Amino acid sequence: MSNLSETAKVVIVGAGPVGLTTALGLARHGVKSIVLEKKATLDPHSRATLIAPSSLEDFQKLGVLDAMLLAGARNDSIRIVRSSDCKELLEFDFSELAGETPTPFALALSQDQTEKILLDAVLATGLVDVHFSSAFASFEQLGDHVLVRDAAGRTFTCDFLVAADGARSGVRKQLGWELEGKTYATRAILADVRIDMEFDTKQGWLVNPDAESFTFAIRFAPGIWRIMEASVPDSVTDADLLDRSKTQCEAMFGQGAWQETLWTSAYRKHERRSARYVKGCVILAGDAAHLNSPAGGQGLNTGIADADLLVQQLIKALSHPAEARMLLADYEQTRIKAFDEHVRGLTDSMEKMESAPAWLRRIGFSMIGALKLAGIERIVARKLSGIDAS
Ligand SMILES: Cc1cc2nc3c(=O)[nH]c(=O)nc-3n(C[C@H](O)[C@H](O)[C@H](O)COP(=O)(O)OP(=O)(O)OC[C@H]3O[C@@H](n4cnc5c(N)ncnc54)[C@H](O)[C@@H]3O)c2cc1C
């Protein structure tokens, strides 16, 4: 073991929400960790804007829920309303889950703010060294410890290495594992827009049933909305995104509503996971382990559930090293089962709805009364809550 190597019980690659939640969870149990992040600062983009009840329960245990509630907008239910007249179409009521979680509500909060709150909490513990501009390069499993190198040649020694380095995980690549599964044919685009406060509404999420492509808008701060077009042709290029965001904004909110587009992004949607999550003392979590369409909000939230269970298993493994193998195998099986049983199905049904031709979607909207009678609101609220997948 090199004397120059920095040492901690756990090294975590990636200061995204999953890496930071893992570091915070370990620190709450008094365990020191090192976080390596290739970027110089946290990512400034909004990305996941809805935190599900199950993740809020985890954040409450970690002592960061109050800060998140101050920064975000609490949603006891999600009302889906028609953009033209704010008529309610559906309501997903989380308060019905009150007997099952202490946090029966969702929180609209942009991911950059979630990460900032987590980072502040992590640093305040005094037990986590966060190294920005430190890109993971390689690891070696050496008996009872792991030697990690970053791109600058620095070395770090730990008992366990957690790969929370996102979908293109370098740790996973060194293990020789791919994210196996499918990439859907359709692309989605999103735009965060600032609208004139005169057009702002707290009535609910807006959906435009008449739009050619499935389009909806989520309010995540006063006057700031995420507009998503869930299925656009490849002929829509990055150069079109700004103009398209203005057009969609005015179609949803009315002429004169658009003030500024803050961020746009176009992406393909996937349903993929690694066949394995654990090899020896190296463990995958979050997007490094699985990837799904952001529709349904299961990307961030599944990763937070990974971090929650992983922390519990690592704490036990550190005090009972002989059981580490069994504990990590349990983490792998549990989290793979949760993804296969709860995330894959939701991703597939959301994709079917999003990519359906406009005429078929319109028929679906015209049958909403029947869907309500069939209890669809309760089923969707439960799915979105993440309770069964955590
Ligand atoms: C445009 C967009 C919209 C989205 N919308 C939603 C949504 O509405 N709802 C939802 O639930 N999810 C959404 N997601 C997905 C969500 O953002 C991810 O699921 C979530 O960020 C996963 O967290 P993570 O910590 O596992 O990985 P990431 O957030 O990807 O974090 C990984 C971190 O590792 C770092 N890293 C990578 N390689 C290295 C290396 N070699 N060395 C050191 N550090 C490294 C990265 O810089 C990054 O900071 C969206 C994603 C995008 C891109």
Can you offer a commentary on this structure?
By secondary structure, the protein is an alpha/beta fold. Helix content is 36%, strand content 29%. The protein contains 11 helices and 21 strands. The protein has helices at 17-28, 53-61, 65-71, 111-125, 170-175, 241-253, 298-319, 324-355, 358-366, 368-373, 376-385, and strands at residues 6-7, 10-13, 33-36, 50-51, 73-75, 77-82, 88-93, 106-108, 128-131, 136-142, 145-150, 155-158, 160-163, 180-195, 205-207, 215-221, 224-232, 258-273, 278-279, 282-284, 290-292. Strands 7-6-15-16-17-14-18-21 form an 8-stranded mixed β-sheet. A 6-stranded mixed β-sheet has the order 9-3-2-13-20-19. It starts with 5 loop residues before the first strand and ends in a 5-residue tail after the last helix. The chain binds flavin-adenine dinucleotide. Flavin-adenine dinucleotide binds at residues 13-19, 36-39, 43, 47-49, 111, 135-136, 164-166, 170, 190, 265, 267, 286-287, 294, 297-301, 303.
Quick synopsis:
With 390 residues, the protein is α/β, with parallel strands linked by helices.
Mean pLDDT: 94
Count, helices:
11
How far apart the termini lie comes to 38 Å
Poorly predicted runs are none
Approximately how much beta-strand content do the residues carry?
25-35%
CA radius of gyration is: 21 Å
What labels would you give this structure?
single chain; 390 residues; alpha/beta; eight-stranded mixed sheet; six-stranded mixed sheet; 11 helices; 21 strands; 29% strand; globular; binds flavin-adenine dinucleotide
